Each structure stands twice: as structure tokens, then as C-alpha cells.
Amino acid sequence: MTHGRRTDTHPLHRDGGRGSRRDTATRYALLPLRIFLGVTFIYAGLDKLTDGAFLKDSGAGSIGDTMRAVRDSSAIPALVDLALKSPTGFGYAMALGELAVGIGTLLGVLTRLAALGGALISLSLWLTVSWASDPYYYGNDLAYLMAWLPLVLAGAPVLSLDAAWHTRRRQRSGGFL
């Protein structure tokens, strides 16, 4: 048995086959979230890469000092210890990861994979840096984690390179994707 992607998700209406405003709004519902998360993660990555203090092993505003400050209050101190083996390397990895996630999300390139990366970054920050926030909702990383989940599940069905590629593949295969 083969399973294909449904192509009949937008029913015909009395207005000559065009979808209703509600259908259009539903199709574009994740776009504002995609734009917000994409721009935010691009900004966060660039901010880290251009901050002279952040990418240092120690000193005010450095990734090293930040990780040492949260180590004992984090949910998983071993994760912080791993980052502290090379704070500068970890800082670069975090910045480049945020940049890749942001670009992928904003352009809609491998969106589900980019969103999973964003969710994992947010999860790791929540379990380390934001864990001690009291009450828990003061830490923004948990909210970011939850914001990534719809994009992990749904991807970028409109205004994305993923959607354009899917349409192109469907046209080449005679509509059977």
C-alpha cells in the first residue's frame, strides 16, 4: 500500500472553486510564526558572532562565565560541563546553529529539520540557562521550544522553498506525490 500526500485539502466553494477567507487564513497561519522565529534566530546568531565579549572563555558577558554561572542551577549540569570543555567552540556552534536554523526557517528550506534544530537549541537553553527561572514562565526558552513544535509538525506549506520543490516534484511526476 502506498501513501501519498493529500492534494484535496482545500475544498471547492460556491465562489467558483476559490477557497474561503478562512481557508486562506488557515493555509497562512504558520507564516507569522515562521517569520518571527526565523528573524529572531538569525538575529541571535549574528548578535553572538559580532559580540566581542560573548565568544570568550571568560570575562564579563562571555559564554564561559555565563555557563559557569548557571552550572549549579541547571537541570543537567553535565550538559553545561560539556560546553565548558570549550566555551568558545560551544559559543560558535550555538551562534552558527541559530543562524542556520533562522535562515532555514525564514526561507522554508528543510523547514521541519530547521524547526527541530530550533526546538533542540531552545530545549538545551531551557534545561541549562533558563531552568532556574521562578516561576518557570519567566524563562523565555520554554516558550520558544513550544513555538517551534507546530513548525516541526507542519513544516512550511506556503511561501517556502520546500513548498516550491514539492510542487515541482508533483508536476514532474504527473501529480502523484
Shape: elongated
Mean pLDDT: 89
Helix content: 55-70%
Determine the strand fraction and express it as a percent band: under 5%
The largest β sheet comes out as: none
| Rg computed from alpha carbons, rounded to a whole number of angstroms | 20 Å
Succession of helices and strands: HHHHHHHH
Question: What's the quaternary structure here?
Answer: single chain
Q: Termini, distance in Å?
A: 14 Å
Tally the beta strands. 0
Low-confidence stretches: 10-17
Question: From the helix content, strand content and strand pairing, which structural class follows?
Answer: mainly alpha
* Count of individual helical segments: 8
List keywords for this structure.
elongated; 177 residues; mainly alpha
Characterization of the model:
- It is a single chain.
- The protein is mainly α and 177 residues long.
- The protein is 62% helix and 0% strand.
- The chain contains 8 helices and no strands.
- It has helices at 21-27, 31-50, 63-70, 77-84, 87-107, 111-128, 140-154, 161-172.
- Helix 5 runs antiparallel to helix 6 (111-128) and helix 6 (111-128) runs antiparallel to helix 7.
- The relative contact order is 0.13.
